[in-house]
Amino acid sequence: MSTPTNPPTQQLLVELHGWGRTAGTRSHLAPIDSVAGAVSTLQQVGARGVVARGLGRSYGDAAQNAGGITLDLTGLNKILRVDAESSEPTVIVQSGVSIDTLMKALLPFGLWVPVLPGTRQVTIGGAIAADVHGKNHHTQGSFGNHVRSLDLLTADGQLRTVAPDGDDPELFWATVGGMGLTGVILTATVAVQRTESAYFLVDTQRCSDLDDLLAAMSTGDEDYTYSVAWFDAVTRGKHLGRAVLTRGDKARISDLPAKLRADPFKFVAPSFGTIPEIFPNRMVNAATAKAFSAAWFRKAPKDRVGEVQNITTFFHPLDIVAEWNRVYGPGGFLQYQFVVPFAEVETFSRCVELIVTSGHLSCLNVLKRFGPGNDAPLSFPMPGWTLTVDLPIRDGLDRLCHVLDEQVLAAGGRVYLAKDSRLSAATFQAMYPRLDDFLAVRRRVDPDQRFTSDLARRLRL
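and the corresponding structure tokens:
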């Protein structure tokens, strides 16, 4: 494919950090709003390389590049085509389109984004580069499973179209989950799903402890498209790991009450404004964490079946408040997410107990079950239990994470790169057994490592 050129894009020297607000570094931010602009900027890349960035929702250092160039792709925000009539409906989008924008555009066609992470404020390029997953991984896999082709700007300045069944499937799968290190994703063709409404039928139940929760998910998840649990990582003793389990499916029009049937595709996305920059580092402490965890558990019904919920309530409650990460104060926080195989349930339970008894407090804790992974060598999901915790930055946190790393690695599990900001190179390399497959593709398409990032340098990629 030919690659047009434009004058160089103006760059600003700015400090960038991930959603966890830690480990910020300064790089030259280049706003990109065209393919030609991306090509021209790539020609300016020096020794410190370049990486793409979307809306900055990776938690660590994956989308920052100290001393080099960072491409701001949010200007590539056009939906190019919606094919709603074919047997497999698809959409062609530029990589800077957010999932929020795409969902709002698709719903009037009766179409649905197949995989939703915990926030809608993620670009399509970022969703592919991190191979994001949602509540339906156990039934429908991760985002890369639904991508039919990519237009990828590689280090030689060429724009390549790659696909899982194309001439270079290895490059396609290295790009999925490849954290932006194979090139710049400029457009993508994504398979989408049909839906009769923007609502969901949701079953909710409270689980008294971690064993109760794991048993409920093990025996019932396959009956639902979507499943997720919030659990209490503060309470100790016999109620350690008590949880609220919510599972559901897309609602049909016939499932909706009469008042919702008139506008079944209504996108309900309330906003309570933006969290101000006023919170101290110790806002999340023993008292506030215990109060929040008790309230969250008790407000949930003990057992409720067939409740109709909108998109925001079921998928994205945190999107109601912008910049919610500020609640952790200027010190920021670490989101630690790991997965271990189903057979390693003892290790999983041990990790939960280590977190709960560590003195490090997490209020936003998510447990899901993963299904089979895909062909992407750096994709995170694998069959097993995956746990996510949000931990404020405090003394001793790295020691806790190091112990968790050892447990996860010994169990044959791994840590999610899109959430990571502190994993060692040696541990990362041991956690991802197909790393050599990824590196072989990267050496082939980018032998001089023009595409790089703070994460890549830290992990020696």
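(Above: one complete record from the training split.) The two ends are 28 Å apart (CA to CA).
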